Amino acid sequence: MIRFSGRAAVPDGCIIAVDLRLGGQFVANAQVEVDAQGRFQGQFGPFLKRLFAGLYDLEAHFRLHDQPAKIRHRFRQAFPGKEGEKRSHLTDRQFVRLGSPEQERIELEEMRKHFRTMADRLLALLEELELHFSSAGRSVFRTAEGKLDEQAWLEWLDRRSLRGLSAEDRARFLQKLRSLEQDMLSPDGGFDEPEWREWMDYRFREEVIGLARAHQAERDRWQVVKFHDAWLELEELCSTLLRLSQERSKYLYERNGLPVAQSDLRPPGGDVLRLGPERSEPGRHPARAGAHPPPGRAVRADRAVRAGRRVGGRPARPVRPPGGAGSRAPLPRGGGDRPGWSGGGASPWPARPRERVLKRCARLDFEGSPAKVRGRAREARGSDGSAS
C-alpha cells in the first residue's frame, strides 16, 4: 500500500485524480477530495503483486468534467469561454522513490540474468531446429537411384539455414551438420517421420513452451514490469520460434509427399504463447491488477505533454528527477511539468545475445506475422512444386 498527500489551489470539494506510473506504464489510480485548507490525501493498493523498486511518476489531475455540479457552475462563472477551456484540465507530476537504490540494483541484475539465460537458450534451440531441419532436408534431394544430390542440397542450404551467416559461422554450422549425416533419415535416406515427431513434439516444442511458461511466470510476479517492450519482445520470440518449427515441419512433410501432421497445424500447448489482454497493453488487466485503466482524457493529456504541447494552459517543460527517497511525496501547487526521465535506465536485454538473436532470427524469417511466414514458405516451393 502506498499513501500520498498533496496541496491544490482549487476550491473546497474539488475532486483530484491521482495516477501512479512506472516508466510511463500505468500502475494504479485514486480519486481524492480537496479539503478547506487545499489539502488532499489518499492511497494506492493494496496490490496483489510485488512492485519494482525505483522512481515512479506521481500525477495529479484536475478535470472539470469530474467535478460536482456546484463546482462546475462556479468554475464557468469565474472562467468563461476559452479561458475556461484552457483551465478545464490541469495536471502536475512529481517523482517518488519506492524501495532503496540497492534493492533496485539487485532486482535489475536479477532481470538481466533472466534475459541473458532466455536469450542463450533461444539461440541454442534455434540452432538445434536448423540443424535437424537441414539434415532431414537431405530426404528431399534424393536422385532416382536413391542417392543424395549433394550439390542441390548445399544450394538449398544456402537459401535456408546458411542464409546470412558469416564464413566462420557457416563453417561451424556445416561441421556440426556433417556429424549428423543420418539424423532424421531412414536407412534408405528417406524422411524418418517417427524420429522427427519424437524430437519435435516431445523435446523441442516442450522446451520452447516450458521457456515461455517460465518467462510468463517471472513476469507475473510483478504488478507492472519495467521495460515492458523488452519482456513482450522476448515472449514473442518464443512464440515465433514455435511458428518457425511449424513451417519447417510442414515443409518437410509436403516435400516428401506426406500429409501434414496435426501437431504441426496446432501444436499442443501452443496457446501458452498467445498474448492475452493483460499482455497486449502496458498496463495490467483490470481483473488481474485490481485497478482501472486511466481515463482517456488523461492519456491524451499525457501524450500532449510528451509532445511538448500545452496542457491545461501551461507549457510542458522537462525537469530532472529528484534524488530524495521516501514513499510519501506532497504534490506542489500548479503544474504542467513533464519529467524527462523514462523510468528504466539500461535495458535488461544483454546487448550481444539480443543482437545475435534478432539478427539470426531475421535471416531465417523468424520475425513477422504467421501469414507472411507462410507466404514466404509458399514462394520458396517454386511455381512448379519443386523443392527449393
Question: Would you write up a description of this structure?
Answer:
The structure is a single chain. Strand 7 and strand 8 form a beta hairpin. This protein has two domains: 2-100 and 291-315, Immunoglobulins (Immunoglobulin-like), CATH 2.60.40; 104-282 and 347-381, no CATH class. The chain is of the alpha+beta class and 388 residues long. Helices cover 46% and strands 14% of the residues. Helix 3 (101-136) runs antiparallel to helix 6 and helix 7 (228-255) runs parallel beside helix 13. 27% of the residues are buried. The strands form three sheets. A four-stranded antiparallel sheet has the order 3-2-5-6. It has a two-stranded antiparallel ribbon with strand order 1-4. The longest helix has 36 residues, at 101-136. It contains 13 helices and eight strands.
Q: Quote the beta fraction.
A: 5-15%
Mean pLDDT: 74
Query: What's the β-strand tally?
Result: 8
Strand order of the largest sheet: 3-2-5-6
How far apart, in Å, are the first and last alpha carbons? 61 Å
Poorly predicted spans: 275-346, 359-388
The 3D shape can be described as: elongated
Question: What share of the residues lie within helices?
Answer: 40-55%
Whole-number total of structural domains: 2
Rounded Rg: 28 Å
Major β-sheet profile: 4 strands, antiparallel
**Classification by helices and strands:** alpha+beta
Number of helices: 13
Oligomer: single chain
The helix-strand sequence is EEEEEHHEHHHHHHHHHEEHH
